[in-house]
Design a protein that fits this description.
The chain is mostly helical. The chain is built from five helices and no strands. The protein is elongated and about 50 Å long.
């Protein structure tokens, strides 16, 4: 799949905008996913590509939250939620 040169700055701007909107409210992938589809990428591949950015954002936010003092008390208070969540994710 060959892309025109004007797509590269658009992808960069859409990524920045999506990151900003995801930080504030969520659903920033509306920009990236729309642009990926507009560039001619198949829908399944565009959705998978879009999920990579969401995974990285999630990992960074978890690493940042783990450094705070609220992490340990919250972790111990919510341990009893984890077992049904893991079981549900395996069977779901």
């Amino acid at each position: 799949m060959e892309l025109e040169l004007y797509f590269y700055p658009l992808f960069f701007l859409a990524g920045l905008l999506a990151g900003l909107i995801n930080t504030l409210a969520g659903n920033g992938s509306v920009f990236t996913l729309s642009l990926l589809l507009f560039s001619g990428m198949p829908a399944g591949l565009a959705n998978g590509t879009n999920r990579v950015g969401a995974l990285i954002q999630c990992l960074v936010s978890m690493a940042t939250f783990r450094k705070t003092e609220k992490f340990k008390p919250l972790l111990t208070d919510s341990l009893w939620f984890m077992l049904p969540t893991v079981i549900g994710s395996i069977f779901g």
